[in-house]
Amino acid sequence: MEAATTTTTSSQPRQRRLKRKRAAALASDPELERLNSLPWNPTFPRNNDEDDNNNGNDPFAMLATGSNELEGGFLSLEEIDEADYAFSFPEPQTNEKKNQNKKKSKLDENVKEEGKKEEADAGVGGGSEGGSDEVEVKKEKKKDKKKKKKKKTKKNKKKKEEEEEEEEKEEEAVTESQNVEKPDTGSIDIDAKDDDVVGEEDFDETEFYAWNELRLHPLLMKAIYKLGFKEPTPIQKACVPAAAHQGKDVIGAAETGSGKTLAFGLPILQRILEEREKATKMEEERGEEPEKYAPTGILRALIIAPTRELAIQVTDHLKAVAKYINVRVTPIVGGILAEKQERLLKSRPEIVVGTPGRLWELMSGGEKHLVELHSLSFFVLDEADRMVQNGHFKELQSIIDMLPMSNISTEDNSQHAQNCVTVSSYQRKKRQTLVFSATVALSADFRKKLKRGLVKQKQSVTDELNSIETLSERAGMRSNAAIIDLTNPSILAAKLEESFIECREEDKDAYLYYILTLHGQGRTIVFCTSIAALRHISSILRILGIDVWTLHAQMQQRARLKAMDRFRENENGILVATDVAARGLDIPGVRTVVHYQLPHSAEVYVHRSGRTARASAEGCSIALVSPKETSKFASLLKSFSKDNFQRFPLQNSYMPEVLKRLSLARQIDKITRKDSQVKAEKNWFDRNANSVELVTENDDSEEERVNKHKQMKASSKQLKTLQQELKMLISRPLQSNTFSHRYLAGAGVTPVMQEQLLQLAKQKLNDRPGSGVGKKGKLVVIGQDCVEALQALRNAGEEVRMDVKDFAGKRRNIENRKRKRKEEKKRLRDQRRKQKRKLKQDNE
Ligand SMILES: Nc1ncnc2c1ncn2[C@@H]1O[C@H](COP(=O)(O)OP(=O)(O)OP(=O)(O)O)[C@@H](O)[C@H]1O
């Protein structure tokens, strides 16, 4: 800890003062004392810079490689429908709010304390009963004054907080790190968050004991306490020792939501902190320049993510763990003014998280901070499998080509380090390449190659960046890279329960409505592959009175943000999305994922389903499988080495009512679509006519006009009737055939149903006071009051053994039958033609 509190240049008097101040702060800070007592060893055994193989003594060596090198399920890579867009993301599972409140109450307490102190100073402390009236009046006046003052202080503070919040929002998630304004001293800035020391006393570090083996810096641990992460996730446990303590390159694969961001984030921050400490030590002991060991104002880690929203999410996550250290993290993504980002880069952040397009735009434009890469210590590819798909690799290739060579001797490296004046051998130690994904697929050949150390230099690698192997090689992945593959053979999240419903294509709406109505607890995401399908179901569901938010690539960015915000706000929210939302989105409380249409590839299925069951939470996925999709489903099962799936339990007694409502909704949808189409066409015609200054005339005859008017009236009347009928139906809970107004039993009551039941009860009471449902005129709900999809699945899911061969056989049979029918038709047609021709000839 001592090192953590020292300054960089003790020769300068100002910094000496700072140092004393920090030491005093440390002495008086019980929190830091407590952290100091943690079993953390500040002298890390690693950092034998030039030696990557010094894992002999490292107890974590085993973890990082051997035992974890399981073969994961290898999936085929296919194109996914993903577009560039941006979101603002919530802080990753922080106790921020709690602490903000505490902060506020602490502020209030301070204000109170101030008041008390002033009272004491003024000699007007409470309990002076024997004082004269004059004194009492004075006291009162003073109290009033103080009250006003307190109020004012509170008001000012609140205003200030609000202003700060506004400012933060304005930066559109591209906010600089909290401590960006601080001068970069190159040392750990304990004071950086002096104002934020509240609320940390109430955690018990013994609960976080599992982190000790990772030997993370106390200031990182402090942030982890604050985040409330009791133990590292398996991928973090495996990656931190390999990347942070052994300095290895890592290829990491673990299920969705398993904490991969910190698996690469923590080693980066740890290395920066270690270097700073070493710099301080060397300066103190040998009077060496700190810059030599811990360069400042230079890019240290470049993280590339495939989409804007992911880049921003990763940034937020890293900022949360870098809360107590002076390390700046900046996202560089499209959709935000390039000038604004250049301005952010002027603050010279140590870590940049970007999307390939915008990064390359700035790099190719010569952006200084992004091209001075000689001290880059980490090159990270997040969601690496997406990177090798089309649309990304050209820019990625160019970015990788800008990286200074690694895997070469220090002397050679120095030749490549352009613009490099003060690069020391310490900094110039090998750059670490970290490649992560939930569905990373490495060929056995590449694994062997890595083990044999046959990694080529980038010049010799083919120009095609079409595989993770080539990408990793090109980025300079070293031969002793740790391959940490924690994906289980099915690659799906451990706590995810999967199920399916076999149904006809035209019945999918009905089953979706059924799921959302009877099992709509928690957040649900409904995935479609096409925007047309998304539009169709969101329209139908809205008509059926279900609030849904939509998200697809053709939406304006603002609308996307709004949809995400609303979805996040509502704990039972429903989002209908295309695969733009399949990757990386980390929204807590997503309980159910519905695959309305099956995705194009197994990978996308994994990522879609991975929006639920994140970070040790549970969740379930339901795939609606039409006969056309059975072969796709079969190949999915094959990819996951699964031969059994659960059939989602359905209570068919609800279906008649579901279908009735749906039929009404479809009719309403058809009429409204037709109306709006007619209106849109008319508007378009008028607009175009106006633009060329044409006077439009109605060519219709009187009779035609009257008929049209009649038709419109009839259709609007029909619409009203349908709407009323549907309104009446959806005003009461979904009823099964066996529904009794006296006893409601069955699949459970959703929040929507509960509300409906209450309304129904009220309605009944109003209609016939005293004779409503139940004995005393009250509606009594007995039994399960909430059945969420996962629960329903656990209660009554039916394990179905799927014979993939059988699937394929069935599919072949269907195709054969189709082919035969076609051939038969063709034969009959030809026969008829022949007969006709013959008849014609006979007649002639
Ligand atoms: N050690 C931990 N304990 C508890 N929660 C954690 C821990 N580490 C990370 N988390 C939380 O787990 C969630 C998922 O983390 P993250 O987004 O890094 O997962 P991921 O593996 O990258 O997922 P995906 O593959 O879907 O992108 C986040 O909300 C994060 O805050």
Automatic annotation (TrEMBL):
Task: Report the Gene3D superfamilies cross-referenced here.
Answer: P-loop containing nucleotide triphosphate hydrolases
Keywords (alphabetical) are:
ATP-binding, Helicase, Hydrolase, Nucleotide-binding, RNA-binding
Question: Compositional bias (Basic residues) at which positions?
Answer: 14-23, 140-158, 817-844
Helicase C-terminal domain location, by residue?
Answer: 495-656
Q: Where is this region: Disordered?
A: 1-66, 85-196, 696-718, 808-844
Q: Where are the compositionally biased (Low complexity) regions?
A: 1-11
Where does the motif Q motif lie?
209-237
EC code(s) of this entry: 3.6.4.13
> What segments bear the compositional bias annotation Acidic residues?
162-174
**Any one GO MF annotation of this record:** RNA helicase activity
Record's SUPFAM superfamilies? P-loop containing nucleoside triphosphate hydrolases (SSF52540)
Instruction: Output compositional bias ranges, type Basic and acidic residues.
Output: 106-120
Q: What family name appears in the similarity comment?
A: Belongs to the DEAD box helicase family.
Q: Tell what the record comments on domains.
A: The Q motif is unique to and characteristic of the DEAD box family of RNA helicases and controls ATP binding and hydrolysis.
**What does this protein do, in the record's words?**
RNA helicase.
Q: What protein name is recorded for this chain?
A: ATP-dependent RNA helicase
- Source organism per entry reads Stylosanthes scabra
